[in-house]
Amino acid sequence: MGEAPAQTALRSPPLRVSAAGDGRCIRNKVVKVIASSLRKGNIVEKDGHLYVILTAENIHPGKGTPVTQLDMRRISDGVKVSERYRTTEQVERAFVEDKDYNYLYEDADGFNFMNNETFEQVSVSKDVVGDRAPFLQENMKCVLSVYEGNAVAIELPARMVLEIVDTEPTVKGQTASSSYKPAKLSNGVRTMVPPHIAAGTRVVVMTEDGSYVERAKD
To answer: Which residues are within 8 A (CB) of 24 and not within 5 positions of it... i.e. 6 or more apart?
Structure first.
């Protein structure tokens, strides 16, 4: 029985391919779901490759067909793509396991995590962690999406507390409603903060993009 065109490049064993390698997905590891059910962090298969969903938005125009807009990153090489489907169109979602892991340390191969129940350790590639790497802290609990024994996506806590290490001095008379100013967080990430926030202040930021939320209450 011949293979589909997207599978012809595979080699023995033909029914098992590591997602951390070429990113290809086998047919018996996916299930068809409607596009509108997809969410951020889900893994989908398209043209023989695995993609992690970065954003998913269901759009309902006044006239016309409702659609689902997906921004995705190809796991094999990090290339980002955007796709638009009808909300009822079927898309192939890959079977992955979401497991809780604690972050341990970084080495030359990537970032190392441990499952506290089984003590299983897994190395996550730098491509998977991406620009969220500066927000990793020792013993931080994260959710890893595991496919074929390899971590293909990571979810950090949505918010965390960091210190402002550098920013413009506070000017008397400025209020929280004034324009934001640039600042540097203790993990090296640059962000924008209200003008009354001074260096040494602990603030709450979003781990997705480092954006300022509020002054920390501790």
So the answer is: 6, 7, 9, 10, 17, 48, 49, 50, 76
Residue 65 CA to residue 41 CA, distance in Å, equals 25
Here the tokens at position 148 are 């074929």
Residue 24 DSSP symbol: B
* Model pLDDT for residues 33-53, shown as the tens digit of each residue: 999 999 887 889 888 888 888
Supply the DSSP symbol for 63. Answer: S
Q: Are residues 188 and 140 in the same domain?
A: no
Question: Encoding tokens for residue 208?
Answer: 């997705």
What is the residue range of 24's domain?
Answer: 5-94
- Give φ, ψ of 136 to 5 degrees: -70, 135
User: Does 37 share its domain with 110?
Assistant: no
Quick check: 33 and 94 in contact, CB under 8 A?
Answer: no
Cross-strand pairs, 122: 113
pLDDT-based confidence at residue 27 (cuts at 50, 70, 90): very low
15 sits in which H/E element = none
Contact in structure between 197 and 167 (CB atoms under 8 Å):
yes
